[in-house]
Design a protein that fits this description.
The complex is a heterodimer of chains A (410) and B (453). Chain A has 410 residues and is α/β, with parallel strands linked by helices. In chain A, 46% of the residues lie in helices and 13% in strands. In chain A, helix 3 crosses helix 12 and helix 13 packs across helix 16. Chain B has three domains: 44 residues, no CATH class; 113 residues, Alpha-Beta Complex (Aspartate Aminotransferase, domain 1); 236 residues, 3-Layer(aba) Sandwich (Aspartate Aminotransferase, domain 2). Chain B is built from 17 helices and 13 strands. In chain B, strands 2-10-9-8-7-3-4 form a seven-stranded mixed sheet. A two-stranded parallel ribbon of chain B has the order 1-12. In chain B, strand 7, helix 9 and strand 8 form a beta-alpha-beta unit. Chain B is globular. The chains are: A alpha/beta (410), B alpha/beta (453). At the A-B interface, helix 2, helix 5, helix 6, helix 8 and helix 10 of A face helix 3, helix 6, helix 7, helix 9 and helix 12 of B.
Chain lengths: 410, 453
């Protein structure tokens, strides 16, 4: 038998660094300290710091098993009932855009997969057009754009002096971008900062975008999860749509329905006519087919079942309010603890102003390292903590850690 | 391409109305209630995407689309490769149902993100299935396995990994091959070439042509091989031919990439259907294999599969796995949990596993019996030509040898839905529909001139 050569074809493949966000959980697992706290990845935890499967999801899955539906391939664009539901959730069921057929919706692999389809489409149909992303933004945005071959640059966003929004910087950078650029916006609950523009600021952002004929691309990963209200959290997107702007929206049901591992989301294109929408949809399909052929059915059916049943839908809204409420409660408790521990009177109220799962503490890399090394608090090196991983019981401990890191480490 | 911006999409009165609306709403409140304004009744004036053309329907999946539109009661769908029962219905395997019930009843289960490379138990079991429990590559820990989205996703991740890390950009596909292969590899960053495969004169393998083309390929080329039940032809190399190919590929230092979508489904035996792959592992060489559980577990829509890369050493496999994560993370972050959990439950439980092999064999046997029935029916009608290829070909598909015109005729006159290359899905046939298909083939062959593909 002819023996193959001794040298590996992959000899030169180097060890890749661990993912900065997902790698945090791995490090957390390896830590044996009883004090350890995982504020790394953004997955919701209960007050007992347990993962949470929503009751409506369990009910929907039970119904699905009982009805014994088949597991045939979905169409490339995904489950029709899901696509209809997700567009309606995003824009409101009676939105004229939907009635006019001006929205193309394709089921995608959660937020990441939907962004990837959008980026692949941009690379092909708006070649050379740059995407502007916020500084900072979710770490994976850059990877998605790089692997899609789409150029990007940053617009100012986080102001470390106020631990708030650098609004004038943001507007200036968006204004200075070449006409017709693509602006990646977080629909609500900005990741990693938790800092959102106000409604008025959104209006100004829309003004500039319109003036410059930019294309807004919204990343909506927290609809309903941020404020507790699906409609409120979609108001930025709806505002832009109402102004007649064309735009892209990537949606995820990872957080708001707790369907993280089911990988359910959608890429939407709101455009000037139903004809254009249909053509875009056909091309999105053409990009999806050589990537994974058609999307997974399970998560899509769960969403369609929950949204399609009025009582399950109501229950979902309540559970979402509970989750958002717990996070708000934890923010308050952390703020109270910080304010009482801090002897120097620093204003920690940004913790209350920020919204959603994450909070940008303002801690730098060294300080974040101190959080982990000394206090066994796991977080990302940019100073981001996931409040979803914090319990009321741990707020004092966390406050101690933050105060120590902030004042004693440079 | 954006050359200049489009300014002034709205009339100045519309802009003033918008500004007025904003002043009227209390500051800091959400503008959710304002979106009912008729300011943009006519919508945007034009589109940045005006130049985007309508893409044609996917040729394979488009067959089902056309089938669904047809109101005829005698229509038959022999397009996409999804298994159908004798009653023409899709099927959920009993073991799959049992596995799902167990998963639902297990209160300790959550829906947290899987690791980037997927469910660890699934990966181990999937690799064992294709390589064999005692495979030296597994025992030596030199296989990097990642759960991916069925066969397509596994092939795509493999392609992107190779485009980034392998020196040779050329990938050779058999002619013909599954329609989606070409785009998977080209979108993944590789350059696609073909090697001769199907011989229309014999409706069998053009072994000589295959060997010549693989020999002529530049050293180190990627060679895509169908592990068993070649799609669309159903024509597989014999064990002796596989051995010849293995020696050739190793001598040329090519890198084989197996597409294994039908393990157990082709012959009914999981081990037999994995022989080709295992022979390439046994010689100590490297290879890639994309596995799909769409057909053999009937998990089509759940998108379950895995990519395994067999490396020379454990350290290399570790590096390779870490780099696979960098390909996957910007594509979809981590794979879906449901289908992989079903597979892991079945493969990891000896009773369920045994039941599965029985159900699998039954599906494979039904397809084999359809082949026999169709062949007999064609013989009975005295249709000209040699139709033994229907019996010799293996797996879900048969390359009938019918040409485009004949196929179009069969669709139009007999409502038979199949791909225009003459491929039929045997899995979509039943005893009831065999006569109708035989009639259609007979009419197509005798009514129109029968020319070679």
């Amino acid at each position: 038998m002819a023996v193959a050569v001794d040298v590996s074809k992959f000899e030169s493949v180097t060890m890749a660094p661990p993912d900065p966000i997902l790698g945090v959980s791995e490090a957390f697992k390896a830590d044996s300290s009883p004090l350890k706290l995982n504020l790394g990845v953004g997955a919701y935890r209960t007050e007992e710091l347990q993962p949470y499967v929503l009751d409506v999801v369990k009910k929907a899955e039970k119904l699905m098993l009982e009805s014994g539906e088949f597991k045939e391939y979905l169409p490339i664009e995904g489950l029709a009932a899901f696509n209809k539901a997700t567009a309606e959730l995003l824009l409101g069921a009676d939105n004229p855009v939907i009635k006019q057929g001006r929205i193309a919706t394709v089921q995608g692999l959660s937020g990441t997969g939907s962004l990837r389809l959008g980026a692949a489409f941009i690379q092909r149909y708006l070649p050379g057009v740059k995407v502007l992303i916020s500084s900072p933004t979710w770490g994976n945005h850059k990877n998605i754009l790089n692997d899609s071959g789409v150029p990007w640059s940053e617009y100012r966003y986080f102001d470390p002096t106020t631990v708030g929004l650098d609004f004038s910087g943001m507007i200036e950078d968006i204004k200075n971008a070449t006409d017709g650029s693509i602006i990646l916006l977080h629909g609500c609950a900005h990741n990693p900062t938790g800092i959102d523009p106000t409604a008025e600021q959104w209006g100004t952002i829309a003004d500039v975008i319109e003036e410059k004929s930019h294309l807004p691309f919204f990343d909506v990963a927290y609809q309903g999860f941020a404020s507790g209200s699906l409609d409120n959290d979609a108001s930025s997107v709806r505002q832009f749509v109402a102004r007649g702007l064309e735009l892209f929206v990537a949606q995820s049901y990872s957080k708001n329905l707790g369907l993280y591992a089911e990988r359910i989301g959608a890429i939407n294109a709101v455009v000037s006519s139903s004809d254009v929408a249909n053509r875009i949809k056909s091309q999105l399909k053409r990009l999806a087919r050589p990537m994974y052929s058609n999307p997974p059915v399970h998560g899509a059916r769960i969403v369609a079942n929950v949204v399609g049943d009025p009582s399950l839908f109501d229950e979902w809204r309540s559970e979402m309010q509970l989750m958002a409420g717990r996070i708000k409660g934890v923010r308050q408790s952390l703020y109270d603890a910080l304010s009482s521990v801090d002897e120097n009177g620093k204003d920690w109220s940004f913790i209350l102003k920020q919204i959603g799962m994450f909070s940008f503490t303002g801690l730098n890399k060294n300080q974040s390292d101190n959080m982990t090394d000394k206090w066994h608090v796991y977080m990302t090196k940019d100073g981001r903590i996931s409040l979803a991983g914090l319990s009321l019981a741990k707020c004092e401990y966390l406050a101690d850690a933050i105060i120590d890191s902030y004042y004693n480490v440079k | 391409m954006m050359e200049e911006g489009r300014k002034g999409r709205y009339t100045s009165s519309e802009r003033r109305l918008q500004a007025l609306v904003q002043h009227l709403s209390p500051s800091g409140s959400s503008l959710a209630g304002v979106v009912q304004m008729e300011v943009t009744a006519s919508g945007p004036v034009g589109s940045v995407f005006e130049h985007v053309e309508q893409a044609p329907e996917d040729p394979i999946l488009g067959v089902t689309v056309a089938y669904n539109k047809d109101p005829s009661p005698i229509k038959v769908n022999l397009g996409v490769g999804a298994y159908r029962t004798e009653e023409g219905k899709p099927v959920i395997l009993n073991v799959v149902r049992k596995a799902e019930e167990r998963l639902l009843a297990d209160r300790s289960r959550y829906k947290e993100y899987l690791p980037i490379t997927g469910l660890a138990d699934f990966n181990k079991l999937s690799a064992k299935l294709i390589f064999g429990k005692e495979s030296p590559a597994l025992l030596e820990k030199r296989v990097a396995t990642a759960q991916c989205l069925s066969g397509t996703g596994s092939l795509r991740v493999g392609a992107e990994f190779l485009a980034k890390h392998y020196f040779q950009r050329l990938v050779f596909l058999p002619a013909p091959t599954w329609g989606n292969h070409h785009k998977i590899f080209s979108n993944g960053g590789l350059t696609v070439k073909t090697y001769r495969y199907y011989d229309p004169r014999t409706r069998g393998l053009d072994y000589q042509g295959m060997v010549e083309d693989i020999r002529a390929a530049p050293s180190g080329s990627l060679i895509l091989l169908h592990a068993c039940a070649h799609n669309p032809t159903g024509v597989d190399p014999t064990p002796e031919q596989w051995e010849g190919l293995r020696q050739l590929i190793r001598n040329k230092r090519h890198l084989p990439f197996f597409d294994s979508a039908y393990q157990g489904f082709a012959s009914g035996s999981l081990d037999l259907d994995a022989l080709a792959v295992r022979s390439f592992v046994a010689d100590g060489g490297e290879l890639l294999v994309a596995q799909s559980f769409a057909k053999n577990m009937g998990l089509y829509g759940e998108r379950v599969g895995s990519l395994s890369i067999v490396c020379k050493k454990e350290a290399i496999a570790t590096h390779v796995e870490s780099q696979l994560k960098l390909v996957i993370r910007p594509m979809y972050s981590n794979p879906p949990i449901h289908g992989a959990s079903i597979v892991a439950t079945i493969l990891g439980d000896s009773e369920l596993y045994a039941e599965w092999t029985i159900e699998l064999k039954a599906m494979a046997n039904r397809i084999i019996s359809m082949r026999h029935q169709l062949h007999s029916a064609i013989q009975a009608r005295g249709t000209p030509g040699d139709w033994t290829h229907i019996l010799k070909q293996i797996g879900m598909f048969s390359f009938t040898g019918l040409n485009r015109e004949q196929v179009a005729f069969m669709t139009k006159e007999y409502h038979i839905y199949m791909t225009s290359d003459g491929r039929i899905s045997m899995a979509g046939l039943s005893s009831k529909t065999v006569p109708h298909l035989a009639d259609a083939i007979h009419a197509a062959v005798t009514g129109l001139s029968f020319s070679r593909q």
